[in-house]
Amino acid sequence: MPVLPLHRITGLLTSDPRLRDCMRELRSAVRESNGDVMMDSELFRKCVGSNIVLLTQAFRKKFIIPDFETFVANINQIYHKVADYIPHLAKFSPDLWGVSLCTVDGQRYSMGDTRVPFCLQSCVKPLEYAIAVHEAGTERVHRYVGKEPSGLKFNKLSLDEEDKPHNPMVNAGAIVISSLIKVNVMFQSEKETGDRNYAIGYYLKEKKCFPPGADMIDALDFYFQLCSIEVTCESGSVMAATLANGGICPITGERVLSTEAVRNTLSLMHSCGMYDFSGQFAFHVGLPAKSGVSGAVLLVVPNIMGVMCWSPPLDKVGNSVRGIHFCQELVSVFNFHNYDNLRHFMKKLDPRRQSDDERNKSVVNLMFAAYSGDVSALRRFALSSMNMELKDYDSRTALHVAAAEGHVDVVLFLTEVCKVNPFVKDRWGNIPLDDAVQFGHENVVKILQQYHHLYSAPESMPRMEDNQKLETMKGVA
């Protein structure tokens, strides 16, 4: 996998489509200088001009995983631990084993056999379901695959009481889903081992499960072709990351799937994506995933990253032995389980947290902006998702400092836009209102007294959604 010299720190690859202009300028400069290029300020501006925002985020550690180097070191340990896992593998070929990950910011890392192509097999089922919902909507899709998909139905047929396929994650449901997807060309594919699926197809046709006008043989041909699509761990991780990113591809910025399609797909993957192991996987790993008999496991950590594991040796229910164990180890090290409490469960690592140095810089910058009355700086911090309730060594917040200095504009921004907690006590037991009173800032006192009343009665102060808050801040920028 091609990498930047500092790829372990940033997670960005030279193959990232977002860096296309930057890399083109660099290669052009190298050609023109016969390989002896000097990076001066003019060439630097020329190269990074179109990518300055992305590169600034990367090197200021503003991505979802700020300390990417430490994170991948931990991932490497898990990978090598799983590589030698369990005598059970002795009966299989232990040679092929790959893991790739891609974060919602496009940070990427790979270990092992990540460029070897393999068939998606059943890992294609959540993807085709997501495409169907994206194109036709939830209501139309579940008109043909049942209105309430059940995680309790794992056999290959599993029809509901209305003779509709109950579960898009098993063969019957996936075959019907194939008939709902708009395609221009139907492909001929391998069918030697498809007798059972043909039997399922004819049974579904008898029960009138297909939408009007759909041809059962075409749907089966398309289903076989979908299962035979070849991917690598590297490309598969980007697919998984697109699901983690709400349907937007992290490395192109394009919306591929609707948020409705992603929500439905992740719900199904979480409840019934791992064959008969789905309940145990949901309990122990607590993340949406889908496996295939090729040895693939597509794992989604919502809002953080996607992972594709691949190792052909399978357990008795058809899941990759190494893939399952990697997922279990991942959530034992990091607090990625859906029900890990981020505030009170401190035994696991949280790669989203900034290092102590970064946090200290944030506190200093936040407090200095509040002290100097710099609303513009505070607005930038809020837009970059900084916690506006950070405390200094005296447990004082930015609102404490602004109230003590009498900066009305800052107090209004922190209360009306950021909705910070006005009742935080510093090491002496004072809240921001106490500071405003002590230093005689009457205007601030009035603002905080009114805000206290509203903050204590949330039903009288409707809170803005995050996107509304963002638009409000942008509007006054």
UniProtKB/TrEMBL annotation:
PANTHER family per record: GLUTAMINASE, GLUTAMINASE LIVER ISOFORM, MITOCHONDRIAL
Annotated InterPro entries: Ankyrin_rpt (IPR002110), Ankyrin_rpt-contain_sf (IPR036770), Beta-lactam/transpept-like (IPR012338), Glutaminase (IPR015868), Glutaminase_EF-hand (IPR041541)
Pfam families named in the record: Ank_2, EF-hand_14, Glutaminase
Example GO biological process: L-glutamine catabolic process
Domain of life from the UniProt record: Eukaryota
This protein's encoding gene: GLS2
Cited PROSITE patterns: ANK_REP_REGION, ANK_REPEAT
Transmembrane segments: none
Alphabetized Gene3D superfamilies for the sequence: 1.10.238.210, Ankyrin repeat-containing domain (1.25.40.20), DD-peptidase/beta-lactamase superfamily (3.40.710.10)
First-tier enzyme category under EC: hydrolase
Similarity comment text for this entry: Belongs to the glutaminase family.
ANK repeats: 394-416
An example Gene Ontology molecular-function term: glutaminase activity
Key words, A-Z: ANK repeat, Hydrolase, Repeat
Catalytic activities: L-glutamine + H2O = L-glutamate + NH4(+)
Name assigned to this protein: glutaminase
UniProt-listed Enzyme Commission number(s): 3.5.1.2
Domain Glutaminase EF-hand: 10-66
